[in-house]
Amino acid sequence: MIRSAVHPGTILREDVLKPLGLSIASAAMRLGTSRGTLSRIVNGRARISAAFAVRLEKAGAGEAQTWVNLQAKYDLATTRLAPGDVVLPLWKGGFRVIP
């Protein structure tokens, strides 16, 4: 069974912003982004991009690579749980392509 990963915005909200006592507006100003953008991220409605991860790193909130990895893990987990297209193997019994 695949467990759903935690959105990295939730981690940002609970493990960074709350302990520091930062509001969304204050943190957004410090990060050089809009309040709306940060709100969407911490509420799980927007992804943490590589550019935003670098902003977090520059602000002292961990390494950019960690934020990107958390986002990728979340994206994979939610994609695997979602119903998807039927996909057939590219080969059968070795490396022969199925006709």
Automatic annotation (TrEMBL):
State the CDD domains in the record: HTH_XRE
Among the Pfam families in the record, one is HTH_3
Alphabetically list the UniProt keywords. DNA-binding
Protein's organism: Dyella lutea
Name this protein carries in UniProt: HigA family addiction module antitoxin
Q: Which residues form the HTH cro/C1-type domain?
A: 20-59
